[in-house]
Amino acid sequence: MKLSFSTKPAAGDTLVVGAFEGRRLSRSADDVDKACKGALSRAMKAGRFTGASNQFLDVMATAAVWAVIAAGGVLAWYAYDLPDVDRALAATRRPTVTLLSADGAVIATRGDLYGLPVRLDQLPPSLPRAVLATEDRRFYDHFGIDIIALARAALANMRAGRIVQGGSTITQQVAKNLFLTPERTLKRKVQELLLAFWLESRLTKDQILAVYLNRVYLGSGAYGVEAAARRYFSRPARRLSAYQSAMLAGMLKAPSRYNPIADPKAAAKRTRLVISNMVAAGYLTAGQAKALAKRKGDVAAPARAGRHFADWVLDRVSGYVTPGDRDLTVVTTLDSRLQRRAEAAVGASGVESEVALVALSPDGAVLAMVGGRDYSRSQFNRATQARRQPGSAFKPIVYLAGLEAGLTPDTIVVDRPLTVAGWRPRNFERTHVGPVTLRRALARSINTVAVQVSERAGRARVIATARRLGITAALRPEPSLALGAAEISLLELTAAYVPFANGGAGVWAHAIQSIRDSKGRELYRRRGSGPGRVVAAAHVAAMNDMLAAAIDSGTGRAAAFGHPAAGKTGTSQNHRDAWFVGYTAHLVAGVWMGHDDGRSLGKVTGGGAPARLWRSFMAGAHEGLARRPLPGLPARPGPGGEERPGPGFWKRLLAGLTAGD
Fold it and tell me: pLDDT for 431-466, tens place per residue?
């Protein structure tokens, strides 16, 4: 429609106002005037409404722009310090330290182990299925975030009033484990989501799952299924059975708790849960799951022996070389055969308390070490870390000081009630035998005589003698020192007996023979044998004579096993600790029993369970070894032969039949 006006019309004139589809339209001037005024009024009203609308739209548009800018700023802030993805995808690890026994067997490995990367098509189907069934069943359906899983986890957490369930997908776990720190912050969570979206946009689902399986931590320093398969099952990942696959998948929740080396029972229980998940996910039938759960032979390779020993040595490697970024191989002094004997003897002892055992060669090399009854239950090493009162097992040091002060094994001392500086030592049997030789007094572990020897030699001399034998524990010059009131580790006390077994040479207990890097270059080799002679030959012979009497006719009779041996029992106050430390010309060994919390052992003494455990270990350790006399003593025939009387033989034969400690 087109409106045109040439002149202002007069009232009553007829005007042609336009045309519509070729037809002429005519209206009177009054009609046109009314129409124009109405149109103008409507236009003005429309203009006012449109202006308000435009203003509102302008405000909304401005707010939207600022919201986008703010959101972009927040995302930019969270994305600013995102890690370099390419660098994070490259495997990095701590250097690996491998411990070998003296005969070349692997004892332990510390550090991060990464196996060669494997593709999904190189793995048994059961492995990724077990992982998906347990960790992320909708992995192939979601876009990096599983809304259903998040909602389910949120509901479960609200009902529990605490976090009991998570909703992370495998993609999120890849983002978190590879690129981010484990801290629980909003920033880290936003970054995790951003990286999950990035991974989903750049990689296929199979690639994401492969990255996860190749880099996930599975305990004991093993990263990825290839390293874990070799660590736990001594086989490559491609040869894992369905049961082993389920066990690996079960470790993902808590690798340190559910791995079969740390806790076989917990690992088996978790594996059964994974198998149930595979049934629920449709990967296994109920019948297949039932058959699979019975595959006990597929559990894991046996746990390596000497784990307390391995921890002790690994903590000392940095004192010999600086590892840096090199892989190291450490050859130790551990004798695999003796270690197995020691662990078997401890296991068969049947005691309810804790037990520790350590065995050394005559040059101070640690050949076997057991730091407790069950490593999986407690990694505390009672052979090296625990410091307990040795009781009468400390007396050989007191008697050696007495010999060096001019006493002899045949010196007569009166066993009688005694008071020293207001302190009254009591004998184990609460009786006194009167005049007695030092030989008999040590064999029967008479307390009053030991205190008199200490006082005659001087407490300072006793402490100096202990230091010369290698004891570094705090020793106070008090009368009770003679009865073992100080706190000493089993390793330290056992090493102090070594000079009696080797003829008087001092030793430093040691466990590392050599260290080399991954290229075979030798970085360290032990040279030298110790501080030299610390006990005169005559005093070695006298001590061996007296300590042999302790096994022949004294408190250590339960330790006799057919080889010339010497040793001493020990029981601390209130029966908190029971000890036996003894030796032959081949081997020195010490045994301790007690409770970690210091509770009484009841009626257990050093001459009972510890002596029997020592005998069990030493008998097995000496299989095939020739009988050798102790230094300074004549040879003695074996069982069935005629014994040649040695120094003090007849006096030992006439010694009392009762034994105390």
Answer: 999 999 999 999 999 999 999 999 999 999 999 999
| pLDDT tens track for 35-72 | 545 554 554 455 544 555 666 666 676 666 666 665 55
Q: For residue 516, report the phi and psi dihedrals to the nearest 5 degrees.
A: -135, 160
Joined tokens for residue 464: 């100096």
Helix axes 186-202, 170-179, angle to 10 degrees: 110
In order of 222, 247, 251, 301, the CA distances from 235 in angstroms are: 14, 14, 17, 10
Do the beta carbons of residue 534 and residue 364 sit within 8 Å?
no
Q: Among residues 227, 598, 562, which one has the least CA distance to residue 386?
A: 598
- List residues bridging with 593 in a β-sheet: 355, 578
Residues in the chain: 661
Q: Pick the closest to residue 107 from 308, 342, 325 (CA basis).
A: 308
pTM given for the model = 0.69
DSSP 202-242: HS-HHHHHHHHHHH-B-STTEESHHHHHHHHHSS-GGG--H
Which residues are part of the catalytic machinery? Answer: 135, 392
Which residues, listed in sequence order, are joined to residue 506 by a DSSP beta bridge? 532
- Provide the 10 A C-beta neighbour count for residue 285: 11
**Could you tell me if residue 414 is left (phi over 0), alpha (psi between -120 and 50 degrees) or otherwise beta?**
beta
Q: Bridge partners of 172?
A: none
Give CA–CA dist 174/107, Å, rounded.
32
Q: How far apart are the first and last CA of the chain?
A: 128
Residue 598, sorted as left (phi over 0), alpha (psi -120 to 50) or beta, turns out to be left
